[in-house]
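I am still getting used to backbone structure tokens and would like to learn alongside you. Label the sequence line and the structure token line clearly, so we can match residues to local backbone shapes. Go ahead whenever you are ready, and we will take it from there:
>
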Amino acid sequence: MFLGLLHEAWISIGASRLRTFLAMLGIVIGVGSVVLMLAIGSGSRRSVQESIDKLGSNLLIVTPGSMESKGLRTSDFTNLTMQDADAIAHIATVVDTAPATRPRDFQLAVGKLNWSSRIIGSTPSYFAIRNWVFAQGDSFTEEDMRLGKNVAVVGATIIDKLFKDESALGSTMRINGQPFKIIGILEAKGQGLDGRDQDDTVIIPITTAKSRLWGSSYVRGITDMIYAQASSRDVIDQTIEDIVELMRKRNKLKETMGDNFTVHNLTSITQVATEATKALSILLGAIASISLVVGGIGIMNIMLVTVTERTREIGIRKAIGASEHSILTQFLMEAVIISGVGSALGLVIGYAIGGAAQKWMATPVEYSLWSVILALGVAVGVGILSGLYPAYKAAKLQPIEALRVAGA
């Protein structure tokens, strides 16, 4: 009996294809929009997370100077030292530390080619903490640090600008007129959160940076910042507390004095960015869901018109013994078929547009199973709810009244 009713419902839908298509259109647009918008929102969150991860895993940055005094008397400015970095590295939840200079722009030259790039002085641990992967070669060593050798690790942009047709590894590059041997080439990372090209960077030993490029204005043992890597995201807050307590002790700060340093937590940036993209995804999904409501209203209107047009058919079927349940089921099936087929078409269209946007417009798109199930479930649910009243109206028609209205 069920298959028979399903067959009847399918025939009835096919009898008026244009009307069915118009009723289905709202569901198609609604499902396609919801799936696409949620995928774009999810892709944006993933893109933000990847950008944060490129900066470094569980990264904390200690810089001199306080951003706020919290009502206390701000203590005098102090410099960070290599010894501070060593002390922070001994905290139980810290994996490693890397003292580093602030980036400075210098002129690079190879033969007749030249390029201005950022130079950073740091230690060998800098690469692991900042999630840098070597495409060729390797990092400089502690021995290179101790001797202050002129060695350099370069990003992909430097290779593209200065070594177009020749091998860079082992070659000599002049930085501010001084020769540096390239011992490592980094894999490309792309743009950072600030929009700058992360690959347009040269990393050299911090001792070399101070003595050969920065000049005598830098006192040996002093560093601009300290990168610290926590063992996991779960212990970041505790790690920050431990670093603050340690640095206050090392700087001999009284309780009435504020910090003369700042610990930056990049995880907080991740959380803010993730919450923002999540809110945007919900907003986009909610706006797209309006199409589903509109589609449901369209189905209801079409089904009501269908009931009116098929009054005679309903009257004859009930006169020869068709039950209210079978009439109700058939009309409800028609609404479910319309919403179901529309949902499937909308899903295909949503995937197609998302794929095209990702390929041709570089839009981050990430589909998830739950968003697809949600969109399809809501669409079919809207179809069922929209078909209930017309189906109920058809089932309650009295045979004699239906035939009288049809013959009038």
